[in-house]
Amino acid sequence: MLCLGIESTAHTFGVGIADEKGKVFSNVRSVYKPKIGGIHPTEAQAHHLEKACETISIACEQAKIKISDIDIFSFSAGPGIPKCLRVGAVACRMLSQKFSKPIIPVNHCIAHIEIGKISTGLADPVTLYVSGGNTQILAFAEGRYRVFGETQDIGVGNLLDQFGRTAGLPFPGGPEIERLALQGKKFIELPYVVKGMDVSFSGILTDCERKLKTEKLEDLCFSLQENVFAMLVETTERAMAHTEKNECLLTGGVAANKRLAEMLKIMCEERGAKFAVVPREYSGDCGAMIAWVGILEFLTQKKSDDFSARKNPSRIFITGKKYSLEQTKINRFWRSDDVEISWL
Ligand code: AMP
Ligand code: MG
């Protein structure tokens, strides 16, 4: 069984093809890079529209399959930028209709978790999901991925990217800051904002930007990383203690950061827990993760069909049911803890 998944929540138009064992046959990306500033929704949409057909074709070529061999089509239905989401949704609806194959709307955050699990072998982790727009600590409990902690304002990736922009670094700022942080020597005190299990980054961004006038950039990059990663490790550890889970998964675009992985690894070793990082090829937004969740959901649909619909008939995205076109609307604020997980 083959699923073709389309990702288009923000900067990336990605297409991946996966099978029911989690084997990925292709994972092709076209990434929109703004000339100045952050993501401009209209420009990103134009990029996705221009690249959609080509990216789908390349994904099929690389997988050495014909598009008519695909059994299921899936797409990222949210959360994300509406103009971007719509491109993936429309492309997926057209493919599903043309080839008379099922269509599955996938929650982007859950796809980051599931691709992390299948690629690392972790079974039931506490997940630290860190990307441009999202920062959440999640764990499975009672039929859903529950959010144990999250950012109250911007995602940690956005913090790094915005600070990078103010400091004149190329976009995305995350990798540049990681590189400069290695040359930093002095630890500069910054706000440490943990509220219960939640974190907040916008005040730290303001403070860091102000300190650009008086401090060395390398020292600021070093201190920024140490400070915000410590906040994330602290809350992740508390979620592990609370849930009594002994696995930890780092996923999302910022998972590429070696220092964050190192800090989480130390925390896990001290607790006697397993730790794994999603491989680099799957850490950023990609189609493979959407394809894999399309498969998971499709294979478990029948089992939970009546049950799920009976339990909550008002939901837009009903797990365990074939989706009509009306049910494939995008949902820009779709929360991971709104999704009933049929496959666990
Ligand atoms: P995503 O939204 O999941 O595609 O992730 C993109 C985010 O990951 C951007 O904010 C990047 O700055 C960030 N990122 C990528 N590589 C690194 C890195 N090595 N260190 C920190 N952040 C990174
Ligand atoms: Mg993402």
Question: Features of this protein?
Answer:
binds adenosine monophosphate; binds magnesium ion; 5-stranded mixed sheet; globular; 344 residues; alpha/beta; 19% strand; 44% helix
Low-confidence stretches: 303-310, 312-320
Could you spell the SSE succession in H and E letters?
A: EEEHEHEHEEEHHEEHHEHEHH
End-to-end span in angstroms? 20 Å
Largest sheet: 5 strands, mixed
Radius of gyration: 20 Å
Strand order of the largest sheet: 3-2-1-4-5
Overall pLDDT confidence? 93
Number of helices: 10
DSSP strand (E) fraction? 15-25%
Percent in helix: 40-55%
Distinct compounds present: adenosine monophosphate, magnesium ion
DSSP strand count: 12
State the secondary-structure class: alpha/beta
* Large-scale geometry: globular
Description:
Helix content is 44%, strand content 19%. The chain is α/β, with parallel strands linked by helices and 344 residues long. The protein has a five-stranded mixed beta sheet, with helices on both faces. A five-stranded mixed beta sheet has the order 8-7-6-11-12, with helices on both faces. Helix 1 packs parallel to helix 2 (82-98), helix 4 packs parallel to helix 6 and helix 5 (173-181) packs across helix 7 (217-243). The radius of gyration is 20 Å and the shape is globular. Mean pLDDT is 93; it is low at 303-310 and 312-320. The structure holds adenosine monophosphate and magnesium ion.
